[in-house]
Amino acid sequence: MGAVGEAIRRRRSDLRAGLTGRLLDIGLYVLIAAFLVLLASKVGEHGPSYLLQILFFALANGAIYALIALGYTMVYGIIELINFAHGDVFAFGAFASASLIPLFGLSEGQVWGPFTIFQLLGVFLATALICAALNVSIERIAYKPLRHAPRLAPLITAIGVSFFLEGVMFLWKGPSSVHYPDVLPDVHVELFGARLGVKEMTVYITSVVLVVALSLFINRSRLGKAMRATAQDRDAAQLMGIDIDRTIAATFFIGAVLAGAGGAMYGLSYNTAVFDLGFSAGLVAFTAAVFGGIGNIYGAAIGGLVLGLIRTFWDGYFDSAWSDVVIFGILILVLVFRPTGILGMRVPEK
Amino acid sequence: MLAGAFLAAACTSGGGTGGGDKGEIIIASNFPTSGADRASGRGPEAGVAYAVQLNPTVKGFKITHKPYDDAVNGVHDPQKGAQNFTDMVNNAKILGVVGPFNSNVARATIPVANKANLVMISPSNTNECLTQDFAYCDPKPAALRDPSQPNNYFRIAAPDTVQGPAMADFAYDTLKITKIAIWSDNETFGKGVADNFGKRFTSKGGTIVVRSDFDTKTTSDFKPFLQRAKDGGAQGIYAGATSATKGCIPRAQSKGIIDVPYMGPDGIGDSQCIKDAGDQANDKMYFTNAAAEAAQDPANKDLIDNFKKAFTQKEDLGAYTFPGYDCAKILLDAIGRAIDAAGGNLPTRKQVLEAVGKTDKLKLSTGTYSFDKNGDPTSATMAFYQLKGTDWAFVKQFSVGQ
Asked: Which CATH number fits domain A47-337: 1.10.3470, 3.10.350, 1.10.1740, 2.120.10?
């Protein structure tokens, strides 16, 4: 089996080195060059401050995708499950935080006092904990009993959980869009003619803090080490005395904290949420995870950021009707040339 | 039960005046009048009943009103509509129908009535594919009609295709906007109104600074679009969308980016849009509506006051009550001319149908009506609404050629 696989792999790399592969390569470079020329002409037309403005929006958009993508990739890394319900946990975060905002004494267009930031942090924390509790319960009820079942079984369960969550949110808030209260102050900094608003700043700061914390946790803490060990070889890790159940539950917990924070930031940035938001957001984030190399947390972060950049730049310079086509077109190209994503499917350890 | 009660009332008032000794002519109406849809359908039904009440006889014939309900479990149902029309076709005394209320019911009932030359006039159908042939229409208008028979379908509401041009006129002439940003939800209705808006706006001399179509199922981020609008110097934004396709979410996101009039079709004229716009929901928002408001014309004051005395239920007076009344008046006028054409005898359905088609600048409560060969009104009145405080308010109405 291994020998056959090896032979196939060699045959493939031969092919890529061959004429067809070279033509494909040239085609790709021509495409990229053409796109860059087109983009450059558009950028020239709109001027530098517009470019900077779009970049501000794009980074915020990408940071939110990245936070969702991290949860996908962590779960995949540890139990090789595409957790399709993850996008809905993100949407749940948006819904839950929308309901928590008045509970923490915040309201749309309110005046900011010295303690308002703590109220908002309270909303973030509570949202993250609610989502974490939800995700850990999902794992316990829907995935854990299937841990030794064939790979397809938990995948189907994940899709089922996704629909279940959408149903719950549908019953909760109905079929229409829910307005998310705009609590952030309408303040901004002028930078070279572009406006860096509080909304974007909030997203940047929160996501950088979360990603750095995640990276430290995975690389420095005991539980993080256990997670890396479990991802690498679950049986061996168990033999070494690692509590697998606890480690997997912790992975779901952390993934949901990121998704919940992402949901709250999505609401704060775009001021809207809808019950099936998780489906499309999840699809893009999953794409981002694959794009960066699924199972690789740095890959997920980069993938999310890149996808956010592509989408917002496309929306900012071209017709939005094509942005999904462009995103998924680029995904296909990347996967054709790098089947394991930009950074490859590394286990964090290596 | 309620419908039966007022039918009885209509009959007594009809019989009371006498003179109806040449026979009986029935005007049918077909609207969703039970359950949740009663709020939409009861208004025009009451309008028809009122018209018949005021005109109990025409040239010696007694006129009565027979109402049909096309709602099943409170929702308008094309199948039920088709059944109703089959029943009407089999009742020789019925010479014309006012209705239906919904475009999908019209789609199912036009073929039934067309075969029997039974004329129908709708106060509220706006789907353009019922009368006009566009590449995207499915079914095509021709598929609803027997080619050997004359057109039997008329309406007084402006088709959806007029909403875009109407708002373009309003934006350019009333709001004095010359640079516009347009987006759409990329669906048949939304993209259609956005395209039509753009065409009229540029033909008037305006400039489109941005045009973008969104898949609103996969994105809620309109900031890059709004930034482009600002960058291009847009003085207004037109949304070819409905509240179900995030029609007013860009209004909320425009905070801090661009603050200019925000316009759209009737699909954004609801409370969902106001909620979605958040704290940007203010008097810079406008939408068009195909139903003219009879109350805006002072000449209608007595008519409306008397109606309110005769019809006292909550649902009786709605946006489509007087459009329904006007449809019945068009039918009564046509029946009168058809009786003349038949030499004072009972006219055939075909004669009534031809008479409706020849309606010539008939001045009624919501406008002055003539029909083109498709059965569309040659000039339809379009009403404009603006957000005032927490609700939409009527601004003005004018007639818009297609």
From this structure: 1.10.3470
A316 touches chain B (CB under 8 A): yes
**Residue B384 contacts residue B286 (beta carbons within 8 Å):** yes
Using a CB–CB cutoff of 8 Å, tell me whether A54 touches chain B.
yes
Q: Give the helix, strand, coil percentages of chain B, each rounded to 5.
A: 45, 20, 35
Nearest to B29 by CA among B82, B66, B81: B66
Do B252 and B392 belong together in one domain? yes
Chain B residues in contact with A319 (beta carbon < 8 A): 211-213
Number of structural domains (chain B) is: 2
Q: Say yes or no for a CB contact (<8 Å) between A61 and B221.
A: yes
pLDDT for A21 equals 67
Question: Same domain, yes or no, for B155 and B304?
Answer: yes
Q: What is the pLDDT of residues A197-238, one digit of tens each?
A: 999 999 999 999 999 999 999 999 999 999 999 998 889 999
- How many other C-beta atoms are found inside a 10 Å radius of the C-beta of residue A29? 10
Tokens coding A153 = 């079984």
Cβ atoms of B399 and B392 within 8 Å: the answer is no
Q: A54–B220: do the CB atoms touch at under 8 Å?
A: no
For tokens 């001319």, name the residue.
Answer: B337
Q: CB–CB of B211 and A321 under 8 A? A: no
Task: Note the ipTM here.
Answer: 0.86
| pLDDT for residue B1 is more than 50 | no
CB < 8 Å to B225, chain A: 315, 320
In this structure, are B179 and B284 located in the same domain? yes
Within 10 Å of residue A174's Cβ, how many Cβ atoms? 12
- Contact list in B for residue A179 (CB cut-off 8 A) is 252, 275-276, 278
Sign of torsion, CA B186 B190 B192 B197?
Answer: negative
Which residues, in sequence order, are bridge partners of residue B213?
A: B184
Residues spanned by the domain of B213: 161-289+383-401
Is there a contact between A316 and B227 if contact means CB atoms under 8 Å apart? Answer: yes
Determine, yes or no, domain membership for B67: yes
String of DSSP letters for B39-55: HHHHHHHHHHHHHHHH-
Convert the pLDDT of each residue in B258-312 to its tens digit: 999 999 998 898 888 999 999 899 999 999 988 788 888 889 999 999 999 999 9
**According to DSSP H, which parts of B127-241 are helical?**
163-169, 188-203, 223-231
Residues B195 and B308 in one domain: no
Question: Is A109 in the B-facing interface, judged by CB distances under 8 Å?
Answer: yes
List CB contacts (< 8 A) between B244 and chain A: 176
By C-alpha distance, the chain A residue nearest B191 is A321
Flag whether residue A43 sits within 8 Å of chain B, measured between CB atoms.
no
Nearest to A280 among B218, B246, B256 (CB): B218
- To probe the interface with B, which of A43, A272, A312, A324 has the most B CB atoms within 10 Å? A272
Encoded tokens for A232: 């690498």
pLDDT above 60: residue B11: no
- Closest chain A C-alpha to B222 CA, distance in angstroms: 8
Q: Are A188 and B215 within 8 A, CB to CB?
A: no
Q: Least CB-CB distance to A324: which of B215, B255, B278? A: B215
Per-residue pLDDT band at A151 (split at 50, 70, 90): confident
pLDDT tens digit string along B120-165?
A: 999 999 889 999 998 888 889 999 998 889 999 999 998 888 999 9
Q: What is the pTM of this model?
A: 0.81
pLDDT score recorded for residue B401: 66
For residues B175 and B136, state if they share a domain.
no
Assess whether the previous peptide bond of B139 is cis (omega < 30° from 0). yes
Q: What is the CATH number of the domain that holds B92?
A: 3.40.50.2300
State both tokens at B226: 């709004």
Q: Is A45 on the interface with B (CB under 8 A)?
A: no
Segments making up each domain of chain A, as ranges: 1-44, 47-337
